[in-house]
Design goal:
Length: about 400
């Protein structure tokens, strides 16, 4: 079939032509926006899930929903080696621009607070002309959001930004991707600011997305974070929604799938949205005509797997050192050994650190450096004490296929 008309989009964070399986989250967010805009109490939102389940895509869709309601929005991606001040300042600057407040003096005052917040990230003694600022012309405010204590400063910043939004009966939404990579001080400050804003009733909301252990990161920072955020787990698609993700865009191009082909696609992808798009693209390119058959899926499978091995799995595998790769492979082997012994694995196929040590013939304590490094790199996570699993679905299968 014509590759130019191929409707599938297996790009990182790229919205697929059919955003299947997320209607519930989109509808719930519309309610949140309406409640906050009318002064009713509502919690900020945290999306969690494995790599490839579409958290970034959903985050962008939620942002679009806020924009359609006239909210000011900004987005940032957290990085483990970067303070929150600069990216958050840029995000809030954009949000203020989108808000369209009619009073320039009031806008300039809040922009000055944002600039003051950003410039506290500069090294002591940095000359004014060399200080970073998020493209704001207004002079930095003095005595507001510039104490140097990020928790105090962020509370003051959100308060001023929220007041500006309340003036025009709208809201501010800040979207944070890879939220688990925030530094501990920034996590604590963000929780404190969300807590203060929720108590004051100002129309500001934070929408974060991150790996499955993100709730534990937030809870370790502030005990009340369990009540501060609304947590939504983003998982793989059920069969019906996975079929819709494939058939709806194909139908728009005059193409259909045989029932057996859809069954084979679900078996290959496990319903993970990124895999659905990757396989959909590969199958479309090899299928000679409509309808797409089981044989087309079989022919396209090696190409799809190669693409995933290079772009999805391989890029992450290359980040690990030889010792860390040995640990990853041992995790995969431990899961297989347990299954062969009749041990029922949980949904995320987690294994104990003792099981991994057993495969390698070493003491668990000696493997702590490798495990901790993999945790920091976001290649594995711990859902409960003493147990670990991959952040990437099907990663164990990829490792074993490497030989």
């Amino acid at each position: 079939m014509d590759p130019i008309k191929n409707p599938y989009a297996p790009g990182a964070g790229q919205r697929p032509p059919e955003l299947a399986g997320r209607d519930e989250q989109l509808a719930a967010f519309d309610v949140v926006l309406e409640r906050i805009a009318t002064g009713r109490p509502e919690r900020s939102l945290v999306l969690t899930g494995l790599r490839g389940v579409g958290k970034t895509v959903l985050l962008n869709a939620l942002r679009s929903a806020a924009v359609r309601r006239g909210w000011g929005t900004g987005k940032l991606e957290a990085r483990p080696d970067q303070s929150l001040r600069r990216p958050l300042s840029s995000a809030l600057h954009q949000a203020i621009r989108e808000l369209g407040h009619p009073e320039p003096d009031q806008v300039a005052q809040v922009l000055g607070v944002i600039r003051a917040f950003a410039q506290r990230d500069s090294a002591p003694g940095t000359k004014l002309r060399d200080q970073w600022n998020p493209g704001i012309d207004a002079p930095a405010a003095i005595g507001r959001a510039d104490s140097g204590d990020v928790e105090i400063d962020l509370v003051e910043l959100f308060t001023d930004v929220g007041g500006l939004a309340a003036d025009v009966g709208k809201g501010i939404a800040v979207f944070i991707d890879e939220m688990q990579d925030l530094g501990s001080a920034d996590v604590s400050a963000l929780c404190a600011a969300c807590h203060e804003i929720s108590q004051s009733g100002l129309p500001v909301i934070v929408v974060g997305a991150g790996l499955p252990h993100l709730p534990a990161v937030l809870s370790a920072s502030k005990s009340y974070s369990e009540r501060l955020f609304r947590y939504q787990r983003i998982d793989r698609l059920v069969r019906e929604e996975a079929d819709r993700a494939l058939t709806a865009p194909a139908h728009d191009e005059g193409t259909a799938y045989e029932p057996g082909a859809l069954e084979a696609m679900y078996a290959a992808t496990g319903g993970y949205p990124y895999f659905v798009q990757a396989y959909g693209k590969a199958v479309w390119d090899v299928a000679p005509s409509s309808p797409i058959t089981v044989r087309d899926v079989e022919v396209a499978a090696p190409e799809a797997e190669t693409e995933l091995a290079l772009g999805f799995f391989g890029s992450r595998y290359e980040r690990a050192t030889p010792g860390e790769r040995e640990y990853l492979r041992a995790m995969a082997d431990a899961a297989v050994a347990l299954a062969e012994d009749g041990v029922e694995l949980d949904d995320i196929r987690s294994v104990s650190t003792a099981d991994v040590a057993g495969v390698l013939g070493k003491k668990p304590q000696s493997l702590s450096p490798a495990r901790d490094a993999l945790l920091k790199k976001g290649l594995i996570y711990s859902g409960e004490r003493g147990r670990i699993t991959f952040t990437v679905p099907h990663f164990g299968r990829y490792l074993r296929d490497r030989g």
